[in-house]
Amino acid sequence: METFNTNIFPKGEKAPSEYFSGGTAWIQILKPNADELNCQIGNVIFEPRCRNNWHSHGGGQILIVTSGTGFYQEKGKPAQILKAGDVVNIPPDIIHWHGASPDSEFIHIAINPNTQNGIVEWLEPVTDEEYNNLSI
After folding, report:
1. Which of 46, 58, 64, 71 is positioned for an S-S bond with 109, CB 3.0–4.6 A?
2. Higher-confidence residue: 8 or 20?
3. Phi, psi for residue 113 in degrees, rounded to 5
4. Cα separation of 41 and 133, whole Å?
5. Phi/psi of residue 132, each to 5°?
6. Cα gap 74→57, rounded to integer Å
7. For residues 52 and 95, is the Cβ–Cβ distance under 8 A?
8. Alpha-carbon span 12 to 25, nearest angstrom
9. How far apart are alpha carbons 4 and 29 in whole angstroms?
10. What does DSSP assign to residue 49?
11. 131: number of CA atoms within 13 Å, CB side?
12. Average pLDDT over all residues of the chain
């Protein structure tokens, strides 16, 4: 059986382990925050079970899921299942996390607009207990 890499972007660099748990993630910056557009865009690949810490974005964030199955959860709300083609609009300063389901790689494009208001504020990790007891 042949397998094909459906990701059109390079895998990128390993994400910092202090902000990701449960596995490895890779980030490829597609558009750096380096001009008057005030926007950063990255492609993020999560191994199964890998997720980022709770965090927020001062300028908000848009996730475009391109492959696999994952989760998105805002603090105090049930998690949402995400699949290829889903788009999540995250308002500024909403505490949340996202990552892969237990049995699937998960890939999304992360768009960070309004970076003049801050790109990301990292918080505590999503614990194994929180992850294993998701109420969906």
Report:
1. 64
2. 20
3. -85, 175
4. 31
5. -75, -15
6. 12
7. no
8. 9
9. 22
10. T
11. 23
12. 94
Within 10 A of 68 (CB to CB), how many other CB atoms are there?
21
Separation of alpha carbons 40 and 38, rounded Å:
7
| Helix residue spans in the chain (DSSP H) | 128-132
Q: Which residue has the tokens 């049995």?
A: 103
Mean pLDDT, range 90-115, rounded to an integer? 98
Q: Are the CB atoms for 49 and 24 separated by under 8 Å?
A: no
Domain boundaries along the sequence of the chain: 22-120
Distances (CA, A) of 38 to 41, 50, 119: 10, 28, 10
- Categorize the per-residue pLDDT at 4 as very low, low, confident or very high, splitting at 50, 70 and 90: very low
Q: Which two tokens stand for residue 91?
A: 């308002």
Longest distance between any two alpha carbons in the chain, whole Å: 48
